[in-house]
Write a structure and sequence with these properties.
single chain, mainly alpha, 3 helical TM bundles of succinate and fumarate reductases
């Protein structure tokens, strides 16, 4: 019962939010690195995508697991925000607001934008519902032409703008989430505090730069079908 009480407490919520958040960060980094294979050409990216599809048990287990972690993370974050708003006096909130960073103050906003963006991304490039014109294409090897679908998508200025907004929200969210999670989990030491504080912005820059490199390289014709 004591463990259940701790889990339901604000401190318990923060720890679980941090753990699930770091798990999602790991996926975001892995996803970005996989997508960078677009610079190696269609064979590399399409073979990588085909390899994942050829392991359906692994692929669907990962998808369901990520979905569960994401839902858990979002639900606990909403619960924590509502709890803090009910418990925090207005005057205290205003004083804390002055000292908080922009990233920490906008976590709820950037998280909401990210949720909408992820849903769009899944409908767009995963399910192919937002733009069916790129579906059912095969490359020379008979694999699904994921490379061609990605290139087709980012030749469209509308999709470029949507993904830029998503990357802006992702970068701001990550810059606080990583450092804040490490602090919440107690991973601090006087000798490494600067390193831990820099971890969030560093991961954010790595992921956003990698994703933007793909988008702009295609939009400006450096990578083409």
């Amino acid at each position: 019962m004591q463990r259940v009480g701790w889990f339901r407490s604000s401190s318990g919520n923060r720890v679980v939010i941090s753990l699930t958040g770091l798990g999602l960060v790991g996926f975001v980094v892995f996803h970005m690195l996989g997508n960078l294979q677009v610079f190696e050409g269609p064979d590399a990216l399409n073979t990588y995508a085909a390899m994942l599809r050829d392991m359906p048990m692994f692929l669907w287990t990962a998808r369901i697991g990520l979905l569960g972690v994401a839902i858990f993370h979002i639900a606990l974050a909403i619960q924590l925000v509502l709890r803090n708003r009910r418990a925090r006096p207005v005057g205290y909130a205003l004083r804390e607001y002055r000292h908080a960073s922009v990233a920490s103050r906008t976590m709820a906003l950037t998280g909401s934008v990210l949720l909408v963006f992820v849903v769009f991304h899944l409908l767009h490039l995963t399910a192919g519902l937002a733009d069916p014109s790129g579906n059912n294409r095969l490359d020379a090897g008979g694999h699904a032409d994921v490379y061609g679908k990605v290139v087709h998508a980012f030749q469209n200025p509308l999709y470029v703008v949507i993904y830029l907004v998503g990357q802006l929200a992702l970068g701001v969210h990550l810059s606080h989430a990583v450092s804040g999670s490490l602090q919440t989990l107690g991973i601090e030491h006087a000798a490494f505090n600067r390193l831990f504080k820099a971890a969030g912005p560093a991961v954010a820059l790595l992921v956003v730069f990698g994703n933007l490199a793909i988008i702009f390289a295609i939009f400006f014709g450096i990578v083409r079908a």
